[in-house]
Amino acid sequence: MSLPAIASRERPPLALPRMPSVADLIAKHRPTLPVYALFPNAFHDVVKAFRDGFPGETMYAVKANHARPVLDRVYGAGIRHFDVASLAEVELLRENYPDAKLSFMAPVRIRGSAGEAYRKHGVRDFALDSDEELATVLSETGADKDKSAAAGLTLFVRLYVPADGALIELSSKFGIGISAAVALLKKIVAAGAKPALTFHVGSQCLYPRSYETALARCGEVLRNTNVKLAALDVGGGFPGYYLNVTVPPLEEYFEAVRRGLVKLALPKDCAVYCEPGRALVADGLSVITQVSHRRDHTIYINDGIYGSLNEYALKNWPVRFPLKVYAEGPSGRIVEKTGRIAPYKAFGPTCDTLDVLHYLIDLPDTIAAGDWIEFQKLGAYSCALRTAFNGFYPDTFVEIADPR
After folding, report:
1. To 10 degrees, the CA torsion angle through 215, 384, 48, 216?
2. Are 18-39+284-400 and 40-281 in the same CATH fold?
3. Helix axis angle, 131-141 relative to 178-190, nearest 10°?
């Protein structure tokens, strides 16, 4: 395959090969290694939906996909605020997008990370959910001794909220109860920093009402304290639109947030944020794989759960990703293969038996070695969780010009 692979994971080139369609890409290059196909219009459409509909400012949760070509398109679509969860993400964003605002929203950080993010990279927003982490942030930023430094910090208390309707809960790791949040907010004010609240309803949330419920818990916190919030972050959880799950329109989520905010009567200068990850990138990327071998109703493909298809390893994960199969026709043209559908077990390319998709996938019953499978809507967590296990590391990106 003659497509240039990205040589460095940290600094991939800004310019990408551009093809009219996935079929044209396959026809020209006959790729034998996985290829990430990017759809710029998809990024623009969903960013516009958030900017037009969400009642506040949207930041992108970098953990969902930190690949530079994806970040370029999120940034190019208009996002200038990023939720970072590690010093490595801080450095990546600051190096490549120096005008971006960064909020360090991991409530527990590697020791020293807050201080370096503060001193070297201008980060002033930090999430936390304990007295110990508050003390750490204040100490590492010098805010424990310098009131002017403290005044420049916005510290978000992570509130526990139930994971009602989320496919993956996130509240068992972070978040504190109402009384503890009240006490922590008061300590933030006493330290001279700006107090803020945040929560996360869980990944792939299917119920818009979950945001309203979470905001009601924020209301309970505020009723028990005289703290004037500087900011409120409603977190992530906004869903991707896949197969096999019923997901309401994004506007219903925005409306639930609006209803919840009205009941809080926040100060006029209180900033409101959200931090979608999956919702901003899911539709913007496909993974094009090739079938290496077929054995009855088992296929072996060149990507797997150690690479881009890691969400196929999630237990009880109901989501199904749209699939297209391409093959070389009699005239040498690349055509989409259709026909009667059958279920297949799919192994990845490593020699590990665990490298297998955890449920059967439906493909044309004529699928054969050499055919290509496009796994669509894989923008979230595909690149982010890939490994180099067994020497396989998908890292070739192509932009597809033709909108889907």
Report:
1. 0
2. no
3. 20
CATH superfamily of 40-281: Alanine racemase (3.20.20.10)
Q: Up-side HSE of residue 80: CA atoms within 13 Å toward CB? A: 6
Domain-by-domain residue ranges, the chain?
Answer: 18-39+284-400, 40-281
3-state secondary structure of 120: helix
Express each pLDDT in 194-242 by its tens digit: 999 999 999 999 999 999 999 999 999 999 998 999 999 999 999 999 9
Residue 309 tokens, joined: 């298809």
Contacts of 262 (CB under 8 A, 6+ apart): none
Amino acid in the structure at residue 284: G
Q: Could you tell me the CATH superfamily of domain 18-39+284-400?
A: Lyase, Ornithine Decarboxylase; Chain A, domain 1 (2.40.37.10)
Stretch among 8-22, 46-60, 63-77 having the lowest mean pLDDT: 8-22
Rg over alpha carbons for the chain, rounded to the nearest Å, is: 23
- Does pLDDT of 10 surpass 90? no
135: amino acid identity, one letter: A
Tally the residues of the chain: 404
Going by pLDDT thresholds of 50, 70 and 90, the confidence category of residue 5 is very low
Is-contact 303 383, C-beta < 8 A?
no
DSSP assignment string, 347-389: E-SSS-TT-B-SS-EEEETT--TT-EEEE-S--SSHHHH---G
Q: Could you give the residue ranges of the DSSP H alpha helices within 224-329?
A: 250-264, 278-281
Measure the CA–CA gap between 245 and 7, rounded to whole angstroms: 37
DSSP 3-state of 188? helix
CA–CA separation, 360 vs 316, rounded Å? 13
Q: What is the DSSP string of 51-64?
A: HHHSSSEE-EEGGG
